[in-house]
Amino acid sequence: MKSFESLGLSKGLVESVLQIGFETPTPIQEKAIPVLLNGNRDFVGLAQTGTGKTAAFGLPLLDLVDDARRDTQALVLAPTRELGLQIANDLENFSEKFKAFNIVAVYGGSSISEQIRKVKKGAQIIVATPGRLIDLIDRKAINLSTIQYVVLDEADEMLNMGFKEDLDKILSFTPDTKNTWLFSATMPREVKSIMKNYMSDPFELTVGEQNTGNVNIEHNYVMVQERDKYPALKRILDDNPDIFGLIFCRTRIDTQRIAEMLMKDSYNADALHGDLTQQQRDRVMMKFRSRTLQILVATDVAARGIDVEDITHVIHMNIPDEMEFYTHRSGRTARAGKKGISIAMITRRELGKVKQIEKTLKSPFKRMMVPTGANVCQKQLLALMHKVREVKVNEEEIAEFLPAVYEELKDLTKPELIKRFASIEFNRFLDYYRNAPDLNQDDRGRSSSDGEGERYITGSRFFINLGKMDGMEKGDMLALIDETSGVTKQHIGRIELKGAYSFFEVEKEKVNDIVNGFQGIEYKGRQVRVEVTERKDGGGREGGSRDYKRGKPSTGGYAKKSNNKYADQKRKRY
Ligand code: AMP
Asked: What's the family (predicted)?
C-alpha cells in the first residue's frame, strides 16, 4: 500500500491530509493522483461515490492551481447543491493550512448577488451546479477564459438530471487548452458522448468493476404485498432500534406521506423532496447530518449527492426502474469503507426487476424476511436492556433519592425486579405486536396477513375504541356495525381486534353510513369513538407504533365478558 508522500503531492498538502486523518490513499487516489498531478492530460475515472474521488481530483487540483494569481483556474461541476457544497468544503479543509485559496461555491436556491460578489473578489477555484453557473455566465459575472482544469463530478448524474445542454454551453466558454477530468459511477451513452466531444485521448481509470456496486453494501429485498409495505417498513425500523437510515420513495407525494405517517407513529423521521423550500431542505439536511434526525425519507432527485457518513440502511419503498437510480440510492450507505445494508421492498411481481439489477450489479440479492412481532419484541427488549447497562449514573445527584426507592422495592427479588422493570417499556411493543400477521409473501404472492376467509376491501379503515377487553369477538363487532349503521357483513372487510380498540374495513360507499351510524352511540356507558384511519395502498395496517397513543390497554372495567353484550348499550339514535 502506498503512502500519500509517494504520490508526488507537495509536502504541505500531505501534512494537511494527514492532519485531517486520512492515513493511506484509497485505490482511486493511489492511481489517479500521480496522473492528474502531471496536469497535461484529460482523465476519465469510473468510480462509485464513496471511494474517495473528491480527494483524488481535489488534491492534485490544489497543488496545480496557483494561489498567487487571482484569476479563475479551476472549475468543478457537480449535479447538486449538496454535493457542490461538500466538494467546496473538502477543498477548503484540504488546503486550509497549505495555500491561501479563495474557493467559491455557486449553486441555486441561494442569493445570486452574494455569489457574484464572492466570484468578483477573485476565486481561483469555483465549484458550481450547472444551472446556476449558466445564470452567472448570462449575467457576464464570471470569466471562464482563464480556466485550466474542468472537473465534471458525477457526470452521469448531471446528464440524468437533464444538464446536457448546460454542460455543452459551459464547456464552450472554457479554453480548448484546458484539461477535463470526468468522474462517473456509470458509463451510459451520454457520458461517452461527452468524452468524445470534449476530451482528447483521456487517461481512463476504472476502480472496481464497471457497474459493480460497492462491495460493502449488502443487498436485500423483502417480498410483501403493496398494502403491507408501510407496516413492513415499521417492523424493519422497530427491529433496528439504532438505525440511521435513508428511505427512498418514487414521488414527492409518497415521500411526504410516508414521512408524515412515520412522524405520526412517533418515529424520528422527516422528508426531503423538491416541494420543500431551499430553507426547509437545508434544515432537514442539517438535522440529518448532525444525527438529530434518525430517518430521512427522500426522493431520488433530492437525495442526489448526499454524503452523510455512517448511514446504516437504505430502504427502497419500491424498486426503481433504472439501474442508475438503484446504484445511487444504495451508494448512500457503505461510504468510506464502512458496511451498509440496502433493503428493497418489492411485491412478487417485481421479483424480475431484482433479478435484472442483480445481473448488472454482479452481486446477489438476499431475500430478507420481514421480522415477526416476536423478533421485534426480542430486539427491542434487548436494546432496552443494553441501554440500562450503558446508562451513565449520576451517583452524586441520585444518591439522596435512592433510599426511598430501595424501600419501595425492598421485598422484590432481583429476577422479579428485572421482569417488572423490563415490562414497563416492553408491554407497549408486546401489545402492539400480539397477533401481528406474517407480512411476508409466499411464492404465490399471498401472505398470512390475508387472513383466513377474509377479504381485503379497497375502502376505508376505521378505528373503534372497543376491543377484546370489552369482550368483543368478530361476530359481535359485525353485529354492532350492522345494528348501528345498517352496514352488513358483505360490505365489511378485515376486522382486527386489539385490546382496548380495534380496526375494521368497509367499502368506500359505506363510509358515511358508518360515520353517521355511530354518532352518539354509547357502549357500557362509554362513548363509542369511530374514526377513519389513514390507509391507502401501503398504508399502516397496524396503525400502532413505538408510542401508539390510542393503543394503550385500558385499565377500565371493560374486560368482563357479559352474555348479553348489547344489553347495557344505550342507543341514543334508536
Ligand atoms: P468521496 O468518494 O470523495 O465522497 O469520499 C467518501 C468519504 O471517504 C468521505 O467522507 C471522505 O472524507 C473519506 N475519505 C476519502 N479519502 C480518504 C482516505 N484516504 N482515508 C480515509 N477516508 C477518506
From this structure: Belongs to the DEAD box helicase family.
pLDDT 10s digits, 111-169: 999 999 999 999 999 999 999 999 999 999 999 999 999 999 999 888 877 788 999 99
Which of 4, 9, 22, 94 for mutating ligand 1's site (highest number of atoms within 8 Å of CB)?
A: 22
Give per-residue pLDDT as tens, 500-537. 889 888 887 788 889 888 888 888 777 888 888 754 33
Q: How confident is the model at residue 7 (pLDDT cuts 50, 70, 90)?
A: very high
Ligand 1, residue 22: give the atom nearest the CA. 20
Backbone angles phi, psi at 242, to 5 degrees: -100, 20
Q: How far is the CA of 192 from the centre of ligand 1 (A)?
A: 26
Ligand 1 center to 50 CA (angstroms): 6
Using the mean position of ligand 1's atoms as its centre, give its distance from the Cα of residue 31 in Å: 15
Give 556's pLDDT tier (boundaries 50, 70, 90): very low
User: pLDDT tier at 541 (50, 70, 90 boundaries)?
Assistant: very low
Strands 526-527 and 217-223: unpaired
CA neighbours within 13 Å on the CB side: how many for 373?
17
- Reported residue count of the chain is 574
Strands of the sheet with 295-298, listed across from one edge = 269-272, 295-298, 245-248, 313-316, 340-346, 217-223, 366-367
Kindly list the distances between the CA atom of residue 376 and the CA atoms of 379, 419, 428, 438, in Å, as whole numbers in the listed order. 5, 18, 12, 12
What is the average pLDDT score of the chain? Answer: 84
pTM: 0.52
Given a contact cutoff of 8 angstroms between Cβ atoms, the answer to whether 55 and 87 are in contact is no
With beta carbons less than 8 A apart as the criterion, state whether 91 and 125 touch.
yes
Report which protein residue has its CA nearest ligand 1's atom 16.
52
Give the Å distance between the CA of 85 and the centre of ligand 1. Answer: 15
Decide whether any atom of ligand 1 lies within 6 Å of the 52 Cβ. yes
pLDDT the model gives residue 217: 87
- Which amino acid makes up residue 99? K
Ligand 1 centroid distance, CA of 328 (Å): 17
- State the closest ligand 1 atom to the C-alpha of 23, by its place in the atom list counted from 1: 20
Residue 534 has a pLDDT of: 59
The one-letter amino acid code at 248 reads F
User: Which of 170, 90, 91, 160 has its CA nearest to residue 130?
Assistant: 170
- The ligand 1 atom at the shortest distance from the C-alpha of residue 4 is 19
Residue 49 in contact with ligand 1 by CB distance below 6 A? yes
Q: Distance between CA 63 and CA 57 in Å, rounded?
A: 10
Q: Going from the N-terminus, what domains does the chain have, and what CATH number goes with each? A: 5-206 (3.40.50.300), 217-367 (3.40.50.300), 373-433 (no CATH), 454-546 (3.30.70.330)
Q: Calculate the CA dihedral of residues 211, 212, 214, 218 and round it to 10 degrees.
A: 120
